[in-house]
């Protein structure tokens, strides 16, 4: 009953605003709507995350995903063996932290080729240094 009343009131206010021309000069009128990719967010949380984002709050999952991407990029760009090792430890820690929080593995499959190449690069460079140390 309550939802019906709210729905009726909302419809009446929308109709009144349309009659008054309140929707005529809206920003972006006539432009294509660009939808955000929220496929990584569980369906039942999407609306809540959208509200939080519009209010200026970023969900912790998005912050953590950005940290993981940054750590992977730093690992790929690192030339010093110690720096590569530090970045790999940081990347592993961040992934472990996300896995523990979600209670399921992080979906790294979309970046699996990139991750494989980073590991190969670290392995090849590390092996080359070990050979030089002998």
From TrEMBL:
User: Domain DnaJ homologue subfamily C member 28 conserved, which positions?
Assistant: 9-76
* Highest taxon of source: Bacteria
Q: Name one Pfam family in it.
A: DJC28_CD
- State the protein's name: DnaJ-like, subfamily C, member 28, conserved domain protein
